[in-house]
């Protein structure tokens, strides 16, 4: 029992150290540092609102918030998976020495993106006040949604990290795929403006599921319907398990290669 | 002016094109795989035949090798070893062609030009290490020394065979210590320390001691990228040997870094640890270091165990075999 506690402690310590390093490195050369995590989504929101607000005026009320909700979640997913992809190769020399399971390196990258997301949330909450979104109890579901999405990203991250070791080109393929996925996630347009078939296709997209979940509980103050719940939980748990299995199976292979 | 539903139209097209592309890619891959499977079956059979032939060759060679084996528990009868390496074989697959990119890779894969050559980094190696021993591992470059250390420390799993050791007790120290050059020395101590298994409390308590031993008091808030390589390895050494945490210390070509004074100092530290009951496993190219410090030497040549025994005997044999080669 005491053993497990100290192992978990060590886990937390390692992840925090690794994350601290990530963040220090990321903002090493900028003078505003982590404040960019707050600023950049706001700036994006302003730009996109300027461009699209009039276009979607009828179908979306509160377009800036609609967009911001999608954008911050999208950024978190993109950031988390992209960072996880190179987690193993970036830490080559540490991998050999690591006492804990190699998963910590990916976990730390995921946690880094969560920390970033935390700062982004400052901007988000601020905007919720500015645009007078009615506070409601359902907003407490938002953190849960974020956790589910993180779990989903973790699974994808595991798989990408393994794939990247054997096949570095995946980096470029994935960036194209990410763009495609973004257009299919209804981040900045209303899903109702698409044909029915397309709507069905998009509603299966996990990223859209998580974004829709967030919009329902934050913007509209409603509890998401059962279908959305099932989809969100299935995607996140499924992806996590799949990623974990892939990682476990290929761990040794990776060590040989690295 | 005609107003086009610009963005929505775009999304629609992108979606469809994307899905089409995806389907095409999947189709292509499936077709390719089907073709490959047929070819592969043939290749596999050939490869297996090859392997059997090689194994046979090795088996024929074997007797001469085991003749040179000296019983490695000559002075530890009945004692339980701290590290038990049992019949370890490590196989690497070397790709015989190196595709320069995705296109090349796909083309070569379709043509079945990518074949793998098997390389035995270690071949049926076994030895024991007992508590308090200082074991040196010698052998020429690429003979599998570092591989065996990695296997013992748990970073690699052997293809065949087993290693019995309590991995929590091991401290592995190699050159190229995995410092992040963008961080300060202090941050690196904590980052590295956490990775090799020290708790925050332990690091807080031993921080001053680590700094003092590395003689870097005035540089701890400096970024590591401004350090000389000697300073970096000093820091690495003092982190790994901090406190009395390590019961088994694995040194991969470490005692030959730093200036003369630090070399002496680190040797002293290692000797202290041995007196404190630590077991040390070290790899070095300097036979003198091995002769001076080890109580037992393991000689590995091209992945095979050649000899285990007293430092003098083994080093002598190693030297004369090298001389013969010339």
From TrEMBL, chain A:
Membrane topology, as annotated: Multi-pass membrane protein
Keyword Lipid biosynthesis included in the entry's annotation: no
Domain of life the protein comes from: Bacteria
Main location: membrane
Keywords: Cell inner membrane, Cell membrane, Membrane, Transmembrane, Transmembrane helix, Transport
A biological-process GO annotation: lipopolysaccharide transport
GO cellular component terms given for this protein: ATP-binding cassette (ABC) transporter complex
Membrane-crossing segments per the record: 31-53, 65-89, 110-131, 146-167, 172-191, 228-247
Keyword Manganese: no
Compartmental location: Cell inner membrane; Cell membrane
GO molecular function: ABC-type transporter activity
InterPro entries found in the cross-reference section: ABC2_TM, ABC2_TM_bact-type, ABC_2_transport
Alphabetized PROSITE patterns for the sequence: ABC_TM2
Domain named ABC transmembrane type-2: residues: 32-250
Family (UniProt): Belongs to the ABC-2 integral membrane protein family.
Name of protein: Transport permease protein
